[in-house]
Specification:
heterodimer; A: about 280 residues; MetI-like fold; B: about 280 residues; mainly alpha
């Protein structure tokens, strides 16, 4: 015991850690292991056949491309929003700052139906795009809209604190050495916020890949065109194809883990850069 | 004059400033403001009478009741877990701590649909425990217990990941002082630790509750969509929307949107209070 835990005068370690491990195992670890065990019964060949099926690959392509597009949009606009919230003052700023977290608080189903309604061909916004011949709802573009909404807070909230910490002296030094405003941004400010920007981008991207509720209402859900991978899992489940659903779910889980690992690496890298 | 010049040189021109504010506000209005307004406009599009009727019809009421019940179980369960986990992790040194923290974060990396699926694999008719549960006439999947479990899973990290960094930052000197003065463990927790973490705790509970009441994907997989029985508010929104009953869908959606606004309001208040009392919030999402 003593080698496992350092000595402490505080009580409650066994109770607290015991309960933590029990609860963690029952709620998270054992249920998640079901995914691995059930897929193992398929064998690697069976698993590979499922996840490289035409419809699965098409859905992965839709999921990744739309998630990437939404994360790129959020990286650009999120940086502008963070910049504006940190550097400028204008009426209503505090309320707007609080509102940025709306996608975290608004249930995804609500986001889904309202975005589908707004961007439908006869909707408030969709009608103007329809005049231009652009269809948004019920196409992959609609998926990008929903995922942009879902991922909106991530870049803002990762970049904002870093931008607040950029020291005015460094900017002043650059400016006094003759750098123009754009040069100062490009050479001084942007490199400082770049790791945070990349972290926010990855968080938004990872969140978008698993997203379901907000997407299914606006996507149209056409197989091979606008069907996302989480929906395909549901479709397999409804056909009682448990093995297929499990294999796709495991593939998604492994992708999520890889992204999580990359994000943790990024955060470690950016904190190290920050400390330098 | 010199200072004046220097200040000007680290500012953008008026035109660029206005352009950037315009882009930011336009973007936020398009993606946040307009959808929020549209929820309420659509809900009230056929008048207050129909709006009210949509909220008091039996299926809607039972959805509200189920959502409240699920949150009333999931949030306290994760609260107890969050406190136990953060006490063990922040106040003691032991091996494997960082692995434990990674495991606690796991549910955030899992797609909601997969979160629901794993419980079907365990407790569904064809699941590991399916035959045993059936033999004993216990129904977890396509029933309320499954919904509660899936909700606990997706909201699992919220309170713990709020409390762990907070309690780590505060250290353990105050607790050690209390214990060495003769306080019991519970006394130490109630009188020393809890007052120090109250804002972080409230912050975690608020976010956990919002997700618990609003969860859709995971709950959708395990619910079975039995009207009046296993439909939560988000599922009720889905069912009525798919039946083209838009007033009913947006009426219940407007309640969830109000919940989101109240959540954001309390969240801002807690952040402000925490700042005032000098208790650093982690601010994780």
């Amino acid at each position: 015991m003593s080698s496992f835990k350092a000595h402490s005068v505080l009580p409650g370690f066994n109770l607290a850690l015991g309960f933590t491990l029990l609860y963690l195992s029952l709620i998270v670890l054992i249920p998640l292991s079901a995914l691995f065990v059930n897929t193992a019964s398929l064998g690697f060949g069976g698993f590979w056949d499922v996840v490289t099926g035409d419809r699965v690959l098409a859905s992965l392509k839709v999921t990744f491309l739309t998630s990437f597009a939404a994360a790129v949009a959020n990286a650009f606009f999120g940086l502008v929003v963070a910049w504006v919230l940190v550097r400028y003052s204008f009426p209503g700023k505090r309320i707007i700052d609080a509102l940025v977290d709306l996608p975290f608080a608004l249930p995804t189903a609500v986001a889904g139906i309202v975005l589908a309604t707004l961007y439908a061909p006869n909707g408030w916004l969709g009608q103007y795009f329809a005049e231009l011949g652009i269809k948004i709802a019920y196409t992959p573009l609609g998926i990008v809209v929903a995922l942009t909404f879902i991922g909106l807070p991530f870049v803002v909230r990762t970049v904002q604190p870093v931008l607040e910490d950029v020291e005015a002296e460094v900017e002043e030094a650059a400016a006094s050495l003759g750098a123009g405003r754009w040069d100062v941004f490009r050479r001084v400010i942007f490199p400082a916020v770049a790791p945070a920007l990349l972290t926010g981008f990855s968080l938004a991207f990872a969140r978008a890949i698993g997203e379901y509720g907000s997407v299914i209402f606006i996507a149209g859900n056409m197989p091979y065109i606008s069907e996302i991978t989480p929906l395909l899992i549901i479709a397999k489940l409804e056909q009682y194809d448990y093995a297929g659903a499990t294999a796709i779910a495991l593939a998604m889980l492994l992708i999520s883990f890889a992204l999580l690992l990359a994000i943790n690496g990024l955060q470690w890298w950016s904190s190290r850069r920050g400390a330098r | 004059m010199a200072t004046q010049q220097r200040r000007i040189s680290t500012r953008e021109s008026k035109g660029i400033t206005l352009l950037l504010i315009g882009i930011a506000l336009g973007y936020l209005f398009l993606f946040l403001g307009l959808p929020l307004i549209a929820v309420f406009v659509e809900a009230l599009s056929k008048g207050w009478d129909l709006y009210w009727q949509a909220l008091v019809e039996p299926d809607a009421l039972s959805a509200v009741r189920l959502t409240l019940l699920v949150a009333a179980i999931a949030v306290p369960a994760n609260l107890v877990f969050g406190i136990a986990a953060s006490w063990a992790i922040a106040k003691f040194e032991f091996k494997g701590k960082s692995l434990l923290i990674t495991f606690i974060d796991l549910p955030f990396a899992v797609s909601p649909v997969v979160s629901g699926l794993i419980y079907v694999l365990l407790f569904g008719a064809q699941g590991w425990l399916g035959p045993w549960l059936q033999a004993h006439d216990i129904k977890l999947i396509f029933a309320v217990p499954g919904i509660v479990l899936a909700t606990i899973f997706v909201t699992f990290p919220f309170i713990a990941r709020e409390l762990i960094p907070l309690m780590q930052a505060q250290g353990k000197e105050e607790e050690e002082a209390a214990v060495s003065l003769g306080a019991t463990g519970w006394q130490t927790f109630w009188r020393v630790t809890l007052p120090n973490i109250k804002w972080g705790l409230l912050y975690g509970v608020i976010l956990c509750n919002a997700r618990a009441m609003g969860e859709f994907g995971a709950v959708s997989v395990v619910s079975g969509h039995i009207r009046g029985m296993t439909t939560t508010m988000p599922l009720h929104v889905e069912i009525t929307y798919n039946e083209y009953n838009f007033v009913a869908a947006f009426a219940v959606a407007s309640l969830l949107a109000l919940l989101a606004l109240v959540t954001l309001g309390i969240k801002s208040l807690v952040e402000w209070q925490a700042k005032r009392s000098g208790e650093p919030l982690h601010g994780a999402h």
